[in-house]
């Protein structure tokens, strides 16, 4: 319809409820406006009042579907619909109307003589959807998938692990190759008719049964400071969920006879009359089968907890408390890294800080000092006139940026002491190191130094 809501004229008593305040004063709508919470319900009741009682007609807001068992009945229905619309003063938008078609798209479905089918573009959207990265994206994907629940009756059971991730108490951690990928594989098979979809559903169940669905697990990996700097492989004992060895993953004792649930006819779902939502069947809990025999080992879940050891690749530069999802077989496990503190280094993001003690001579004259870096001994340039607590930046000598080839920086904090006879490195104008444990007297030591090093001793 053309400007559907605005074709409905409001009665005088109702207009006061849609008054708006503008910079030019108060204005009142004379026709039903868009954006009002009650507008859809008002318009739906209006259309049902106009076209109610006509057989083979479906109405959803401004979309009207007319069908018929044959051409004669269809034309009769179409004529009745057009007459009532004309009598009510409602106009159609010709460019959006389709007449006498063999098939039609209506509310996300394709309808033809053989029945109801999912739209090809919707199926492609499901099959090609990117992996959800957070709860919001997962909700959007599940909404699209559940819209076609009638074509996969046991969908609620298969997607139960994903729905679990939506609970508030569940930590978000996406497990690769879970039911998300199973759904993509099956919907990407080109299913169209109900029979083809039923065949896919059976394959879908077999595929999902082998995945051993389980929520992500939390594990802690203890690291030394050096291991966090350079990266390492660590063995980790983890609890995984595997198929129950007693029932083979079915959740029921071997030999159990499965009957179709009479409440949901094996679909595993039921429609709430109040909210028009699709919920798991209350009788069979979404399984679609009626049986009271549950496996005693797994309590009907089809899964048992099993202990195993995996090798975890710890990336260089990992931080204390940082978490990552590590693939383990067909699952993802959540790993939290705990890094011990270093007595030498202090971490700030991907930068590192340490202290360097130098003599007054080094501070005044400058030179090069050797110190400890993250990856070995490093040369630290000491500029002449260095002050106490001055920071010297060594670019690219910090922690590795994860998922990048760049590095943070190393900041050396200068500390000055009174005298140092046991120095390593070089100092400007000093030609030879002087050992503090020498048996020479001070006057003898001076003979082995340049006049400039005498100046250093004079200052001290």
Task: Describe, in plain words, how this protein is organized in 3D.
This protein is α+β, with helices and mostly antiparallel strands and 460 residues long. 24% of the residues lie in helices and 27% in strands. It has 12 helices and 23 strands. Strands 17-18-22-21 form a 4-stranded mixed beta sheet. A 3-stranded antiparallel beta sheet has the order 5-6-7. Helix 7 (179-187) runs antiparallel to helix 8. It is elongated, with a radius of gyration of 38 Å.
Largest sheet: 4 strands, mixed
Estimated structural class:
alpha+beta
Q: Approximately how much helix is present in the residues? A: 10-25%
Number of helices: 12
Uncertain regions spanning at least 5 consecutive residues? 172-179, 189-217, 429-460
Q: Spatial order of the strands in the main sheet?
A: 17-18-22-21
Strand content: 25-35%
Oligomer: single chain
Mean pLDDT comes to 72
How is the secondary structure organized here?
Layout: E1 19-22, E2 25-28, H1 39-51, E3 57-60, E4 63-66, H2 71-87, E5 104-106, E6 109-112, E7 115-118, H3 120-127, H4 135-146, H5 155-158, H6 160-164, H7 179-187, H8 194-209, E8 218-223, H9 225-230, E9 232-243, E10 259-260, E11 269-271, E12 278-280, E13 289-290, E14 303-314, E15 323-328, E16 331-339, E17 346-348, E18 351-359, H10 360-365, E19 367-373, E20 376-382, E21 391-394, E22 410-417, E23 426-427, H11 442-446, H12 451-459
Parallel strand pairs: 8-16, 18-22
Antiparallel strand pairs: 1-2, 3-4, 5-6, 6-7, 9-14, 10-13, 11-12, 15-16, 17-18, 19-20, 19-23, 21-22
Helix pairs in contact: 3-7, 7-8
Organism: Astyanax mexicanus (Blind cave fish)
Domain Reverse transcriptase: 1-111
InterPro entries: DNA/RNA_pol_sf, DnaJ_C, HSP40/DnaJ_pept-bd, HSP_DnaJ_Cys-rich_dom, HSP_DnaJ_Cys-rich_dom_sf, Retrovirus_Pol_polyprotein, Rev_trsase/Diguanyl_cyclase, RT_dom
